[in-house]
From TrEMBL:
Family: Belongs to the pirin family.
Organism name: Rhizophagus irregularis
Keyword match Iron: yes
Top-level taxonomic group: Eukaryota
Name assigned to this protein: Pirin domain-containing protein
Matches recorded under InterPro entries: Pirin (IPR012093), Pirin_C_dom (IPR008778), Pirin_N_dom (IPR003829), RmlC-like_jellyroll (IPR014710), RmlC_Cupin_sf (IPR011051)
């Protein structure tokens, strides 16, 4: 588990995040959601997505990120596209504010050709940053946000190269190390593949200030990390199974609506 559930006050607006590997007949068969967003990044394999809004796609080599707003209710399934594929993915649950928890469900396919890459060169290419959401330098990602989120897929190619990336000072942030070894921040925290770094906001107001995150590739191979930073919602959270609300009445209402068939059919 990258971000464990039930500790959302530590990484608000992020509810939980998991890395998973599976093949047929594994995956996530038909199930409901309400009150939050899911962000799924597929690193390997082919994942078939279908939902009750009529969306259907295969996420993998061409569609790499799936950003789903479950809103007032959605049924969907995410399973291997065939019996041979081995799927490797991470999925983040992103909270929605109270006034937008019951908006219409929607879906974004973020394909390889619309996710821009920022390249940083010295004599040769030193680092590349795929901008999924928010900005890096003057590059803006394609994801449409309800809660402001910065999402980057960072690869530092050159050993000992230090990347400096601005982060809003009032955002929570977490970094997951996919490959390699690196040091992070002014205190040069050493992390390796499979480690997670969680950082709290430096400011708790609506400031426009930024802090600079330093990431250094400490190995001889590529350092690849996934970075998410988001503005805290600062509201009560109640989560039960696939439903997220602000109080228990929201969960009871979600369960009732689901059993009454108000989430439509796939």
């Amino acid at each position: 588990m990258i971000l464990p559930p039930n500790k959302w006050e530590l990484h608000d607006p992020f509810l939980m995040c998991a890395e998973d590997w599976f093949r047929h007949p594994g995956g996530f068969d038909l199930h409901p959601h309400r009150g939050f967003e899911t962000v799924t990044i597929v690193f390997d394999g082919l994942l078939r997505h279908q939902d009750s809004k009529g969306n259907s796609s295969i996420i993998g080599p061409s569609i790499e990120v799936q950003w789903t707003t479950t809103g007032r209710g959605l049924l969907h399934k995410e399973v291997p596209a065939d019996k041979e594929t081995n799927v490797h993915l991470m999925q983040l649950w992103l909270n929605l504010p109270r006034e937008q928890k019951l908006i219409e469900a929607s879906y974004q396919d973020l394909t390889k050709d619309i996710i821009p890459t920022r390249e940083i060169k010295k004599e040769e290419l030193a680092a590349k940053i795929r901008v999924i959401s928010g900005t890096s330098g003057n590059i803006k990602g394609p994801a449409k946000n309800i809660v402001p989120v910065k999402a980057l897929d960072i690869s530092i190619l050159e050993p000992n190269f230090t990347l400096e990336e601005p982060i809003p000072a009032n955002y929570n942030m977490f970094i997951y190390i996919l490959e390699g070894n690196g040091s992070f921040g002014d205190d040069n925290t050493k992390l390796q593949s499979g480690n997670v770094l969680i950082s709290s906001p430096l400011r708790n107001d609506d400031c426009n200030e930024e802090s600079v995150l330093k990431i250094t590739n400490e190995g001889v191979n590529v350092l690849r990390v996934i970075l998410f930073a988001g503005k805290p919602i600062r509201e009560p959270v109640v989560q039960h199974g696939p439903f997220v609300g602000n109080e228990w009445d929201d969960i009871i209402r979600a369960q009732k609506d689901f059993y009454l068939g108000k989430f439509a059919e796939l």
